# Entry
Amino acid sequence: MYGLAGAAAHRVLLIIAVLGLLGAALWFVLPVANGEFAMNAQEVHNTSERIDLPQPVRESTVSIEEALEKRRSVRDFTQEAVSLEALGQLLWAAQGITSDAGKRTAPSAGATYPLEIYVVVERVDGLDAGIYHYVPDTHALVQSATGRFARDLQEAALDQGFIGEAPINLVVAAEFQRTQNRYGARGERYVYMEAGHATQNVYLQCQSLELEAVVVGAFTDQQVKAVTELPEPQQPLYIMPVGKSDGS
Ligand SMILES: Cc1cc2nc3c(=O)[nH]c(=O)nc-3n(C[C@H](O)[C@H](O)[C@H](O)COP(=O)(O)O)c2cc1C
# Structure
């Protein structure tokens, strides 16, 4: 008799315990699903949000000769934000798709396309501060981190102050193996050449957008990799701060 009642009570306790655990699990899971837990601005990574960029324009009143004549490395930036249209245009200039076969604005040895472009955003109209990866195929950005990282990038680049001041910093990275799989050791130099082509395109594009820029090669690779959380096979080649300048 006592044994039967004891077994029943045991079962009831077990059911209560299981229901309690389920309730606790739902308590934690539901607010996350509803996005109720605010994200920590500085440290949120892997947000994977896709942002379609405005279509690039293909015409300008600034001639190529004028852009070549005026191009200069500029290192003082105002606080003015960059528009999303301008950011999209700069990324298209760097690596945009310009043919049905998938060829791009910059040449690439054997069309192996080793470059990947990231943007450390401080001030872009309509975009949260954070780190974004440019996807040429869809002309879109994928956000990988939320928060302000320009000062960290500045520290990674021998504390060159204009990096922290710029509204955006492009980070040109490369996966060497894509090109070296075809060209062996010689492929290494091809990748560096390609980074030059892409960033020169950005310099020239800046001229028709009334923006200024500078290429930066002086930085500690591991620090830049850590700030931008580059995937392991990718190496940073250039940081390129871009913004408005009042010419002072
Ligand atoms: C490979 C390379 C690395 C560079 N690295 C830096 C850098 O770390 N910091 C910087 O302020 N400028 C850097 N520059 C920009 C040069 O200082 C600049 O191009 C040079 O002074 C000529 O000026 P211009 O670009 O206005 O014609 C770099 C340029 C190149 C090509």
